[in-house]
Design goal:
Elements lengths: L1 E4 L6 H16 L6 E5 L4 E4 L16 E3 L6 E4 L3 E7 L9 H17 L6 E3 L2 E7 L8 E12 L2 E9 L19 E2 L11 H16 L3 E2 L3
Parallel strand pairs: 1-2, 1-12, 3-4, 9-11
Antiparallel strand pairs: 2-6, 3-5, 6-10, 7-8, 8-9, 9-10
């Protein structure tokens, strides 16, 4: 399985086109599976379940309609995106199990920075309890949105390392109004993207298998 890291910001449409081409090649047996880590310029994406009422500031950043599941999400600098292109036919063609594996990957990654993150049965993504904000308050630190074509996965997850959290105010993130968003920096963990990438890779391999470097 290939592991690729892009250091410069990658335009959303460019990334999606490259991801879809790679996924199609994987389905044909012509390319290796790939995990691609990158950042986007500030933008909002609308998943297949997005509600227009959740786009609070439609003119703030570009809005991209996408085929992934889920609702509105923000992407921007300081957030690590992982596009995950795996052949689930060769692994386990079970979407719920795949999403649970992505959540487990994130939880293990965050544990490396002494952040206790948790999954929720009624909310996709990874959450952090914030007792200092009040009883039962939780913030999302990572979002998951996937699509599967010919049982090859597309899209993936976004982990908030040190993004501008005010940028999330232009949407209702993932349609969840009663909880907020957080980041490693917001939790007092000052971590670089290369350090995040190392933790992501170390947590990924025990769950999904060994990786090898692939140039951008």
């Amino acid at each position: 399985m290939a592991w690729r890291v892009s250091d410069a910001l990658v335009a959303y449409d460019e990334a999606v086109a490259a991801m879809e081409a790679r996924a199609a090649a994987i389905a044909r047996g012509e390319a290796d599976e790939l995990v691609w880590l990158l950042e986007h310029p500030p933008l909002y994406t609308a998943g297949t379940s997005a509600r227009e009422a959740d786009l609070v500031e439609p003119d703030r950043f570009p809005v991209h309609r996408t085929g992934r599941g889920g609702q509105y999400t923000y992407h921007g600098p300081g957030q690590r995106i992982a596009y995950v292109m795996l052949d689930l036919n060769r692994r386990r063609p079970d979407l719920r199990a795949y999403v649970a594996s992505l959540e487990a990957w994130l939880i293990a990654t965050l544990d490396a920075f002494n952040v206790r993150a948790e999954r929720r049965e009624d909310r996709v993504g990874v959450w952090v309890r914030r007792p200092e904000k009040g009883d039962g308050v939780e913030d999302k630190i990572a979002a998951i949105g996937i699509r599967v074509r010919r049982w090859v996965s597309l899209h993936g997850l976004s982990l908030n390392v040190e993004p501008d959290l005010t940028h999330f105010s232009g949407i209702v993130p993932c349609g969840v109004r009663q909880h907020g968003v957080t980041s490693l920096a917001d939790l007092g963990r000052i971590v670089s993207l290369p350090e995040t990438d190392m933790a992501l890779r170390a947590a990924f391999e025990p769950i999904f298998g060994p990786t090898r470097d692939e140039a951008p």
